[in-house]
Write a structure and sequence with these properties.
The chain is mainly alpha-helical. The chain has one helix at 4-47.
């Protein structure tokens, strides 16, 4: 029984999924920061009229 042959592709697949999740989290963080930036500008301009 060689479990090593079956494990390697699964490990690679898991690593790819982890990198995809990391990329999605990075994009989500950038979108949230831009959204908060624009919302903050809107609130700031609303209160400083």
């Amino acid at each position: 029984m060689t479990g090593n042959d079956d494990q390697e592709p699964d490990d690679r697949r898991r690593h790819r999924r982890k990198s995809i999740i990391r990329t999605a989290v990075a994009l989500f963080t950038v979108v949230v920061l831009i959204y908060l930036f624009f919302v903050g500008q809107g609130i700031w301009s609303y209160y400083t009229q």
